[in-house]
Amino acid sequence: MDLVANQIIFGCLLNAGSVCTGSSEENPTEDEISPTGMYSTVFTPLTGAAVLDTNAAAGSIWGTYDSRKIIGCKGRDLKVAAMATYGKYISF
C-alpha cells in the first residue's frame, strides 16, 4: 500500500509542474520531477499502513522547500509542511 501511495503522490507532483525534485520514505533519493519546477518536496506517503486492516488511522506527512534541490536545505528554507490523516475513526 505504501508503494501505491508513493506512485500516486509522485504522479500528482509531476502533473503540478511546480515541483522540481522530490524524495520520499519509499524512494529516499533526490529525483527530478519537473525541470521547470521551483520547489522541492519530501514526504512520507502513507504512515500507519501496517494497521490499515484494523480501521486505525493512517496519514501522509510532507514538506516543501523553496529550493530546486533537497540536499543542503535548512529548516528556514521550508515553505510549507503539512499532514493529512485518513481513517474511519477520525474526530476533530
Quick summary of this structure?
The protein has about 90 residues and is an alpha+beta fold. It has 1 helix and 5 strands. About 25% of the residues are buried.
Tell me about this structure.
The protein has about 90 residues and is an alpha+beta fold. It has a single domain, classed as 2-Layer Sandwich (Fructose-1,6-Bisphosphatase, Chain A, domain 1). Helices cover about 15% and strands about 35% of the residues. The protein has 1 helix and 5 strands; from the N terminus they run αβββββ. It has one helix spanning about 1-15; strands at about 20-25, 30, 40-45, 60-65, 80-85. The protein has a 5-stranded mixed sheet. Strand 1 and strand 2 form a beta hairpin. The chain is elongated. The two termini are about 25 Å apart. The mean pLDDT is about 90.
